[in-house]
Fold:
Amino acid sequence: MSCGFVLAFYLLAQASAAEAWRTYRNDRFGTTIDYPAFFKPGTPPENGDGLKFKSADGAVFLTFGSYNIDHLNLADLKANVVNDLERGKVITYQTQGSG
Structure:
């Protein structure tokens, strides 16, 4: 059984409630996120895994999906992503929904 996970990590920036928001939909994994409009989407990969967004001040967030071939729970998957961060990168905002 395969399962898609979508993780969104907002690095170095937070949006105020008054900001304009846009919606990104990943057709491959059937997921949707809303993001602050000051982030600009990058070039989508050919495989449709997800997308990288960047703000003018250099803040970055990624949203992506993958098949859970290792049958990891969400906590273990998150730990793997955190362990793979480039040296000096930090996660300054994160959230997890109920789904």
